[in-house]
Amino acid sequence: xxxxxxxxxxxxCGLSGSASSSSKRLCTTDFMxxxxxxxxxxxRRLAASTTKPLPGAWVEKPGLAAVAPxxxxxxxxxxxxxxxxxxxxxxxxxxxxxxxxxxxxxxxGEELTGRRMIEIDSGLREVVCLGVVRADGVAVARExxxxxxxxxxxxxxxxxxxxxKAPGEIPELQPARExxxxxxxxxxxxxxxxxALLRRVLGGRALSxxxxxxxxxxxxxxxxxxPIGLYDADRIEGPVTxxxxxxxxxxxxxxxxxxxxxxxxALFDARGPFGSPTNDSRRTAIDETTRRCVMIIFGPGSYSxxxxxxxxxxxxxxxxxxxxxxxxxxxxxxGR
Length: 336
Fold this sequence. Notes:
Elements (H helix, E strand, L loop, with lengths): L6 E3 L6 E3 L2 H12 L1 H4 L1 H10 L69 E3 L7 E9 L8 H18 L11 H9 L10 H10 L9 H13 L3 E5 L7 E5 L5 E4 L3 E4 L4 E5 L2 E4 L16 E9 L4 H18 L4 E7 L3
Parallel strand pairs: 3-6
Antiparallel strand pairs: 1-2, 4-11, 4-12, 5-11, 6-9, 7-8, 9-10
Helix pairs in contact: 4-7, 6-7, 7-8
GO molecular function, one term: phenylalanine-tRNA ligase activity
Protein name: B3/B4 tRNA-binding domain-containing protein
Organism: Candidatus Segetimicrobium genomatis
């Protein structure tokens, strides 16, 4: 699709939207100047910038009183993309019966209302794209034989296709590597989570079996060969921004101790960073009490928006099959 100098892709759903040419020049200039400015200076500039939602972005509804969550739960928000109108979305966190307890009935359609869930920092909108899958009413089981069988079938196919090839020779791994390079990271030193999974499979090692939801996420990551983050939606506070971290920021990661996000792409909520294309945090981790989750697929800005949309639709189908969810919303942010 051709673009005029005064148009750019709307980041909330992957459709075109109006934006000022100056903001587009700023996005491009910032990353052209990375070598001379230095990653620390760029990260500070991005963190200090204020991002104004583009026309058509999800708008947070003011004046909603938060309902007291169950123990260790924090206020969360819902996601509605332009592919899914507000009346077909998930319940607002302040109105959702899930806020009253994990075993409550799912919200009715007439109660549903949308709030802005996630955005990409203005300086990264040409660099990063995200596929977002928001699921409600998930059932998490410790044993997941159907998921494990699918992983074994896929692993056998991947071994047939890629055994003997170096990661640099596998075309499907290159988009994730491009994402890392475009955000200032060396993917040969810090691997995308999807590449780490594939290396394990090609090495003949079994993937860890966690639970039905986490294992479904790993299945999707191996299918798409893109990094995927999976988060308990009730442990996320407020809207989420994908941006570079600044000096000293990080989180307690799953299995790897403190993970620094200084100058690295990460997801931030009101409490700070909680996820990245490399690993996820303990704070927003999935467990058997999880009833609402958010799956985020990370790709480079050059990635096909149509292909990313196919990925989120496939993830939707997997969640319905293996996590018994009946209410799913998807959105594509960025891409070409």
